[in-house]
């Protein structure tokens, strides 16, 4: 028996509130979970700042990664013996599922934006670099790590395997919807995953859905839609995100202007300079970020200090609806008024936009090509989902965007100059904004 | 309208996975939640190292504190208009419920043990000291903070109020059982809280239970029993706890022996010296601990480095059953053998004992006097629970203790001297230990 | 204290799997539940033949009626003290909620169709006639029964009260979606009712929804849509319904042709003759129907016997898709072929159509005027739901209809004449029907 | 491929609220479910009169039987490949599981008591007699029906197979606890079945439990205990049961005294005469019983009429605690007083006793020998559960009995003779009865 096929002496299970149990029989999977790079995901929250709004959402990416693995394990279990399914790809699928989020850092969204990083790049680095994860994978067979990396990068030649991990109805999305709904406690996000797993069928280049399961898929897409607007894009969460982003900006700017930090921000230096090594990247977990933000509450720089204090103690920015097409003049005015009042609008007046495309059919050549979901009809033909489902057709390809303008209400009310203050308040609040 | 009675313009709710919603109408409660001292609880896990075993258990003390508040709010709501209930105590009860865990630090159990701290002392300090929390409470009325502190300390003269917060069936216990069961995903820990709330009755000096609700209380006590043995005392969790404790011991010892840390452990200094100020205490959250443990993975000292690496990457100690009455000789032998092998048994051979008393009736004069649960019978008389319930009687007052011996299996198997190695292995594993 | 205001000595509760508890404090409600006319609802299934497909769906209309009452009780509880809400209408709302389905008989849909009955007419009769229910209501105040009847008939002058009981988001619909989902076990049908109750607001002539709760309402409408297509219109359930309808037709036809039943079908006589008295109507519960169907399995008449045997033992008709616009020729051919084969196509070849309109805005003058759901915006204006929700807009007013052709496959395969048999099979199965 | 091994073209599933899905792959199972004898179980409630107290408990024995089958299917799935497990017994186990309750009639408990019947006898008859079920079983192989019957009767030589179906932790009990808890909505009755299934191990003559799963078994035993006292023995349910039993007694007595029923009670005649054929037995479902009870509400005999009216309209008897050791004198007095008041105490004064033994170890020679639950320890030895579990030890072998005295309160308050009335009331209510 090779390492590739090695089974644990006895099946191990993790108690999981979403899938009841996560089952591990393969030595490879067990060993991957035990690597420091994978254990590190325990110190990175799945939903970043969402717990500021939904206090239950404190679960980590470790939690989610196990869940994605478990779903893929169950899908493959159902696939065994079916035409088109090559069971030699079993371990590849499960490893890719387990490791797909490995490159995430803390508060990825903000860090990637400010420091021009890409978690997918780091996922590749961790899998292919000098890491424990790489060693485990290469023990399977030379080149296996590269295969796993290719599946995650969607460049692997086996399109069926890729679609298991990345499609509009993949194990990743199914797990995060169910898991995030569970931890936040919202009633959206539920759908009949067991049913979807039962109607998934492998064909040569993708996973398709038996048409009798269409309604379960509709339900899944609606769940996704609701979770985006009710949870992921919640305006209060975005307020914390806005502040976080501004903290990173400020720290970088201070660094670039040779500001003397009370304690040298060692962990951040390569992020500031734009030359992050894998080793440095792996050290930066959420604890480290919190540690610095706590320190920075006592920094000399007033803006950095204030923003950190806001973030750590949840003194968030308020927001109003903002229409970028009609209100650009208002925004210009506000920037001037902030300047007059001595408030730095770069940090204290922020337009944030969120947008989501709940489902789309294939539009070749567009920025991000999305593989559509195909139903397989009783007569064996394929049909793109939105052509069969009224509900999905109705929302298909419709991007919805929400713009908000964020600002510190307390600072504005504290402006000494009564006229400036009233002008700002007038612009922000007195209009009919619905 | 005074601050004491001030209601929010509109009721605020927190979505909570356990209680559906946490409702806040009182300005005082809202303001307490917004204080930095309370927000800090977001950065302290409710169950310390339990997430090492049950990955779902990543919820914070913030989460739990809101839950306890909500339960007390509902109890009081039911009490309104009942004899013996003085609704003037409403705000006092709710504040005490919300703040009862305020003094917890990260991994309280280990920190308290190593540094001789007491979270209850710090709860008092935070409520009575120069804090945001104190300011909010004193705005209610001068002396109100002291009242809240007294309720939490169980010294308040209103015994009914005290028993709401601290008894063998209080809001604290009900919340943590339900919440910890929810986040870990175990099926133990569930009981019909709504039913218990419906059968609670205030009398002059305590909360009692209508006898028709006895079975729900039995179920609650069984849940508690199961959660202790299945979750809280899980041997793998205790392994992480053992390592954590040893890290703190080692760091303290190094400090005392004037070891030069690569980075001065500023946050820990007063803990080492035994003179922790409130300000220092409040700064030490879980992020800070993790930050240092990460740094210490690169320390010169081999023991500190190894233990931190184990803790952060989940390379835990293994364990065997240990009977302190019969096996003290084995333990002595092992200590000698470890010494011979060059392994410091102070850090690498640890007996850990857990014990629980699921319920007890009143035993005056004993170490910790426990208030029994009283049933109120149809004819109005009181009856102590264990006299009416066979199940409770069966487990009442029976302390159960579990002893385990922890050690690093990998180190032992790496011992060069084959004889010593086999001797150690022989003692640890070859006996029938069941 | 009058009977109208009389409270029970102690609140009574019913344990309910959907709402946890149903709470009763009012003597009037308690007395209504105890009437024989209301207890009779225990012997009528909420979902008629659905348990043939979803075996869990065995719950009764009694079950559902308590649930609707409970929801209205909670809505009213939230309304207390709000502008536009007249708490004098409290008891009226709760009685109407409890009694709104009182006139349902067993398998209402089929009975109403075959015997030209109307359960709403009987609801009125029971409330206004010489019944226990009427006596209880008239004790509240003379004319109160008429008021309750008017609310249920939607003719009451208080439009706000009417909209609580009958609208596109009323207590009836919320209860049946949640309840039917619970008992069938499907994952559709769930939505956050607690949230919807929190955002309901009374205005002068209707209940409206705070716009911040729009997503919960979207979720409710999607649940409704899914339950209709996944559960209520399930083709297997409809097969049982088709057979049931044909049994009633056959029995009526036999009666009209002076057929001698082995046992005189006493309970059915007035149904056959079209002159059902209230007393007769109340006697006909599901047990009685089952009793006769069991007897009729031993009748002389072959068709009645066969259909009853099919219904009782679940030997259902099979079905194929049927397009009434394109396939009328096929249907004509089949009727002729059935005749040739000696099978009575009146009973053994049935087109069944189901259609649903998940939500509609107001279209004055149309057959059934539906009151739209209105959102109340932050600035106080009202906005019709589909104008604010993309999802609802997408499905608003879109009636979807499904046609199926039902037949006994076993009978067809048993046709002796091979040519006729193959012709029938050819028409039914050989086409591409997707 | 023989019928025995024949698999369905595609797996069929039943949506089940308790087990999510019931899976059927074997043609034999599918055919058994389709038999009229099995479909008949849809018309027999699992919990008889319990829905009078817990309105949700309207589920049928059909429902439960599918559940037991599904649990056995899962257990066997886990057993595959394990030592001691002979997979040839697979179909035998599943058939026995599915059919174990086949002989139940409506309200079995009362019918068996009054008419001296035994549902186990009828289960044997249905399996071995001239039935559809028998035909399906005999197609598997000649003698297979007898094997199934032997497993259910616990006389089969394969003790391992028997213990899967009938032991103190069998599939039957696990399903009914979970299912009855689900439908009633009570929070008792939940335990971690998935965990128990994972720790079940086949040995030569029984199913044992890995000791690491002991706590899950404790939880199961406590659930059973709570369900008995909270649900199954609920005094209100027993009141309905008492009345039902008295109806049957009265009807039998009238029959024996040649009373002329308005409609000849055809279905009951052989029950009255004590000579029930299988054919007659199968016809008597709950609908038929309800049909007669409705008719009997219009009978001449006052007692029969009154009792039926009480049963159908839920006008139940009230109850008080009764101590048969101390209160036999009171009972004698009451009987005399009832006689004086002209109330037939045979029908209107009933002592009802319920008792339960939550778990017992093996006591050879006792009335009903119960097989104990054995744990298998890490070293492979077996240990009886109560020797390892404090909780189980505490309740093991302790029979608990509850006695109540039932009577129609309304009749007593309607007694004309004031002295007799007060005497009765005095005995029933004025004592301290707690």
Automatic annotation (TrEMBL), chains A, B, C, D:
GO terms for molecular function: dGTPase activity. Transmembrane segments: none annotated. InterPro entries: dGTPase-like, HD/PDEase_dom, HD_assoc_2, HD_domain. GO terms for biological process: dGTP catabolic process. Residues 61-177 form the HD domain. This is HD domain-containing protein. It comes from Ornithinibacillus bavariensis. The gene is ywfO.
């Amino acid at each position: 028996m090779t390492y590739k096929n090695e089974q644990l002496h006895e099946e191990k299970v993790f108690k999981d509130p979403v899938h009841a149990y996560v089952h591990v029989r393969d030595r490879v999977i067990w060993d991957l979970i035990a690597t420091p790079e994978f254990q590190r995901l325990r110190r990175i929250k799945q939903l970043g700042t969402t717990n500021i709004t939904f206090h239950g959402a404190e679960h980590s990416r470790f939690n989610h990664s196990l869940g994605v693995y478990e779903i893929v394990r169950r899908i493959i279990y159902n696939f065994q013996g079916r035409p088109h399914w090559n069971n030699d790809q079993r371990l590849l699928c499960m490893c890719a599922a387990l490791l797909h989020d490995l490159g995430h850092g803390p508060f990825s969204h903000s860090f990637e934006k400010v420091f021009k990083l890409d978690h997918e790049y780091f996922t590749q680095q961790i899998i292919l670099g000098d890491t424990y994860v790489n060693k485990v994978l290469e023990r399977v067979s030379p080149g296996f790590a590269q295969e796993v990396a290719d599946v995650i990068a969607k460049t692997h030649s086996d399109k069926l395997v890729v679609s298991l991990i990345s499609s509009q109805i993949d194990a990743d999305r199914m797990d995060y919807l169910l898991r995030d709904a569970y931890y936040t406690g919202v009633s959206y996000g539920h759908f009949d995953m067991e049913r979807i797993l039962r109607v998934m069928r492998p064909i040569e280049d993708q996973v398709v859905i038996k048409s009798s399961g269409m309604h379960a898929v509709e339900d899944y897409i609606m769940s996704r839609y609701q979770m985006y607007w009710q949870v992921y894009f919640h305006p209060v969460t975005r307020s914390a995100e806005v502040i976080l982003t501004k903290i990173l900006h400020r720290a970088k700017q201070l660094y670039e202007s040779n500001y003397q930090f009370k304690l040298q921000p060692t962990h951040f230096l390569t992020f500031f300079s734009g030359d992050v090594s894998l080793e440095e990247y792996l050290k930066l977990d959420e604890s480290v970020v919190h540690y610095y933000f706590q320190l920075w509450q006592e920094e000399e720089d007033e803006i950095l200090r204030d923003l950190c204090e806001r973030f750590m103690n949840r003194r968030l920015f308020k927001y109003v609806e903002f229409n970028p097409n009609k209100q650009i003049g208002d925004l210009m005015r506000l920037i001037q008024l902030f300047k007059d009042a001595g408030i730095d609008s770069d940090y204290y007046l922020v337009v944030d936009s969120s947008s989501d495309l709940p489902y789309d059919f294939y539009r070749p050549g567009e920025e991000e090509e999305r593989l559509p979901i195909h139903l397989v009809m009783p007569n064996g033909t394929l049909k793109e989902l939105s052509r069969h489902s009224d509900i999905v057709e109705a929302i298909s390809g419709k991007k919805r965007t929400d713009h908000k303008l964020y600002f510190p209400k307390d600072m504005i009310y504290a402006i000494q100059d009564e006229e400036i203050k009233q002008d700002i308040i007038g612009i922000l609040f007195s209009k009919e904004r619905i």
